[in-house]
Amino acid sequence: MQSFRAPTRSALRSFWLVLSATVALIGAAALGWSLGLPAVVWDLALFGLLAVVGWRTPGLATRPYRAWERLVRKARRATRLWLTGVVFLIVTIVGRLGGRLSLAGPTPPASAWVPKKRLPDRSYGADSDVVQASGPEIGWARRLATWSWRSGNVWVWSLIPLLALLKRVEGESRGSLGGNVYTLY
Amino acid sequence: MRKTILDLSRMILATFAGLAGLALAIPALLIIVPVWLVEGLIERVRTWIEPEPVAWEDLIEFTPEIGWKPRANMTAHALDFNQEPYLVTTDSSGWRGKGTVSDAQVVAFGDSYAFGCGVDDDAFFADLPGEVRIKAIGSPAYSLVHSLLWMRRLAPQLSGKLVIWFVYHGNDLADNVHPAFNEYRSPFARRSDAGEWEIVSDHVDASRWTINEREGGMQAFIEICSDTPQRRMAFEACDFLIRQGRDVCRDAGARLVVMSIPDLSPLARLALARALGESELAESFDEDVPDRELAGICARAGIPFVALRDHLDSDDYLVRDFHWSPRGHRKVANVIQDLCRQAGSPPEEGRDRSRMAV
After folding, report:
1. Is residue A39 within 8 angstroms of chain B, CB to CB?
2. Count: domains in chain A
3. Which domain holds residue A69?
4. Are B199 and B191 in contact (CB under 8 A)?
5. Could you tell me if residue A166 is inside a domain?
6. What's the pTM?
7. A56 and chain B: CB distance < 8 Å anywhere?
8. Engineered SS bond to A50: which of A20, A26, A60, B251, CB 3.0-4.6 Å?
């Protein structure tokens, strides 16, 4: 699907200001070190001029902004792939080292179904046969803590930061234009 | 006992393996954290410099019989389809622009195009410098029925003026026969049991309309441009409404010109191509149908008709919105100025007034 969003003027101006300021600060540091204070003043004056030009004609920033967006997309993709790989690696290592995670499939004609032991009524909704506290007042962390300790899977906590990072990296997907777009006006 | 110790040692081993694996995430953090920091900074500056936009429901207020109109005495930033804010200023009646109906030589009725959606006040066609004073009476999501009702209300002020009636191909033709715009109750045209067309507005109040049968999409536009019952109904309603408008203007001593607005925006082109790709009506689809039908209706009603398709191209529309760009507003203002100059001279004998050349 082709993206139908374009950067707004505010986004372009903001990007231009941040870009100009970053370049100006790096330049000021470098010039101040090598050439002294007058060079820093010239550097900052140039930044001011660039900022004004970018503010008045935000379209100037379109190409650098697109390039920045491409860079962000690539960084996100690389991070996502890396993190996913680490998650799978952890699961594989743990499975081999002695977690209770069963990675090997059953030998036919054996079944992979595992009978769920009888649980107390209050654990009816539980997805394993480990007795867990239930109810809306019980948060996911407490439930996970109970389950991981009782089931011998404390290692799953090492996945939580990775999954949280993955969720953050996924971000918002960009919109796309379908054939049923409303012409509401 | 031995099994418990074995289980415990396995658990400890697995936990250490998991934590060691966590260290492998550090390279990913080194890539993404600087990106997040810069993104966060850009976003912070953007929210700092961007004007606070108002939501659609805060731009309008309830109006009996008509449903809604732009809020009066408003200076606000509305958002276009691309979420780009644009500055809107309305007068004491809620209409955009500096002039008044009584001072204007031209009064333009219409929907979001007459409202100037997507452009700042200084690019709005009715406020551009020119020989002719123009006042626009329009609101987002109006159909021809809304325009007709405003024409009736403002008729005493229309004497001696040129009245332009914008008809947007995109959704006006379909919305004329719908009792609501999404959750907002709307007056509409209906054919009675006796076969006569009438305007219905007794259902219009401030309460929410909960049955949303309005299509309002490209599919509705395709149906109107193809050989379908929807097309016949849409143009029968249109014929009725335009004749009503003609009578109102004639009685008020005003001259009416119908001006059709095609949707040539790159966004609409893309949406139309996709919708046609999925439609069974693609073979019978003919995009010239609205202009042809409207020209016929106007000819039979003795009203001049201007197809803006003859004057605009895709560059006259915003890149990421369905509405006119500042360049499009300038062109439309020029077309109106030319029309006004032309209308100022007496009509030539035998001239075909059904399609004015401007």
Report:
1. no
2. 1
3. 8-74
4. no
5. no
6. 0.76
7. no
8. A20
